[in-house]
Design goal:
The protein has strands at residues 10-13, 19-23, 28-33, 40-45, 51-56, 60-65, 70-76, 88-93, 99-104, 108-113, 125-126, 132-137, 143-148, 153-157. It is mainly β.
Length: 163
């Protein structure tokens, strides 16, 4: 019998902020990050390394190495986001993983480098007063689209962003 459904390992975040790697072959969860007091609101896996980035409700970006289950870095966005609403609602790596786009509940959007989470522009782009809920890039990173909370679709040419 041919097995048409081959599951790969995947990552799950529970409501208490605990991050698990689900090993499908062994049918077993491994804890990547113990429960934090902060609710994780977004995550993305780096396309070329064993890193996962997490955003939380307090406006913090965290980096976890999922191959050795090590928490490696944390950065608060309060240093470069000046609004009261610092909730990170969406994060997305570019296709080669050199930048991370960060969408906020306030509608602000900014880019950070994927190693130290340092901002790539002086101030965030402010497209809307509603939350950014999804970000995607074209395969060559020349276009980016983001979706606002009410389903409005906006797209931007990456050339306009000085990365």
């Amino acid at each position: 019998m041919i097995d048409f459904l081959q599951l790969k390992d995947f990552i799950v975040v529970d409501g208490h902020g605990c991050v698990y790697l689900i090993d499908c072959k062994r049918n077993r969860p491994y804890i990547l990050l113990e429960s934090q007091c902060d609710i994780i609101t977004s995550l993305d896996v780096h396309p070329e390394s064993d890193m996962i980035s997490l955003g939380n409700e307090k406006g913090q970006l965290s980096m976890v190495n999922y191959s050795n289950c090590q928490f490696t870095y944390i950065k608060s966005v309060s240093d470069f986001v000046k609004t009261e609403q610092r909730v990170i609602t969406c994060i997305k790596y570019t296709s080669i993983g050199n930048h991370l786009a960060v969408g906020m509940k306030s509608g602000e959007l900014f880019f950070v480098d994927s190693c130290l989470y340092l901002p790539k522009q002086e101030k965030p782009f402010n497209f809307s007063s509603t939350s950014i809920t999804n970000i995607c890039f074209s395969p060559d990173d020349s276009f980016m689209a983001h979706i606002l909370i009410w389903g409005q679709l906006q797209h931007e040419v990456m050339g306009h962003f000085v990365l």
